[in-house]
Every structure is written in structure tokens, then in C-alpha cells.
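Encode chain A's predicted structure.
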Amino acid sequence: IDIFKYVIYGVAAAFFVYGILLMVEGFFTTGAIRDLYGDFKITTCGRCVSAW
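Encoded structure for chain A:
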């Protein structure tokens, strides 16, 4: 029964981290594309996150 608890917490943590990644990636794409800073890195990261 403890295993199910760990699995549930693991899935919740994974979704939490995924949400933070999406938020940070969206923030950087809106703010940093204008400055053209790390444009290639951000687009590849966005493609990786959206494909995941």
C-alpha cells in the first residue's frame, strides 16, 4: 500500500515540474525572442517539451 502512495506522489511531482517547465518556457519565449537571446536553445527546448 505504501508503494501506491509513492507512485501517486511521484506522478504529482512530475506534473508539478512539467507545469513549471511549461510556465518558464512560455515566459522565456515571450520575453527573450524580442532580445534574440538564446533563441535557438529556447525553440529546441520548446519542441522537446511539447513533444514530451
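DSSP finds two helices and no strands in the chain.
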